[in-house]
């Protein structure tokens, strides 16, 4: 059969999502996530204006060939916009292939290598007490791993740090909506690396004391440290046996991690902003990381992410796929099917979507006893209620800008 039509849906049920809806001549529909937080319409245009017209009439079962066509042929390769667009098509084609085969997608990717995917939750608190309260909430839900982010004395607002809402809701939304109207601009936050480095080891100490040695504890540095600052933090938290330190330095500077490695045995994870296997070349061959942080959505789909994981596997490096709310339920399902099949799976980030999001995207993945499972529905196992989706209009929203105390723009 052939691809008959490609629609690109934009909807905002709680946050913005971009979804490719690919329909074949025999009426099978596949979904792919192309959401790029804060740059949504760049991907929409790439898909509508430059990709969809070139794919109509092609054999939708030629997933690898279409991936290579979209990657190699346009001359301009890689980059977050291009690779999110490639991802959206790739996921939709895998969804169609598995639906046609009548199997959940993981069975086409080699079948299950495990019974479920170890997952971690996001716990945060403006104080250590509030943070511990949030961790208790997640442990009670069955999580065996948590990412801990905490307030820092002297800093007002830190990205990803919120106290739990009453009623045990621990959600936060990465992209904030501020300054509406003509002056629509991202929020601004003030950052101080020295204050953070002084405070964070005491947070790790307190959490270990409260929860003992079994709980896996992760932390995200959001690319804010220089190599020498990152080395110091990795060394200072090492006694508390972190599961990983994520994004300690700006991602594109691959050799920065050599210095961190020289000073510490704290496991390192990086890559949520990467979009191709080439971004990992030095990191993987020099064994500078322990976990790959990419998601199918931002790394060229299941085909692109599988390339990265095959390469990583040769060096014993495992997955830790990105799973924030800006990876749509479709993208999350793609991560889960691949994770279940991979030999070198490590851990999966799990930031549950809001009820509003899940009323538009109907998922069949499940979370039980600390583990995620993609479910047994044929394909990716996610349905999009396009009627409901059309009622949620796009809302401009951005990640905050990060500045140092002197007003200079800082990494992130
Ligand atoms: O900042 O998803 O590990 N998770 C993260 C996220 C990212 C956002 C970017 O869109 O760092 O919160
Ligand atoms: Co991160």
Automatic annotation (TrEMBL):
PROSITE patterns, sorted: MR_MLE_1
Sequence ranges assigned to domain Mandelate racemase/muconate lactonizing enzyme C-terminal in this UniProt record: 128-267
GO molecular function, one term: mannonate dehydratase activity
UniProt-listed GO biological process terms: amino acid catabolic process; carbohydrate catabolic process
Domain of life of the organism encoding this protein: Bacteria
Family matches, as Gene3D superfamilies: Enolase-like C-terminal domain, Enolase-like, N-terminal domain
PANTHER family, sorted: D-GALACTONATE DEHYDRATASE-RELATED (PTHR48080), STARVATION-SENSING PROTEIN RSPA (PTHR48080:SF6)
Protein name: D-galactonate dehydratase family protein
Organism, as annotated: Candidatus Brachybacterium intestinipullorum
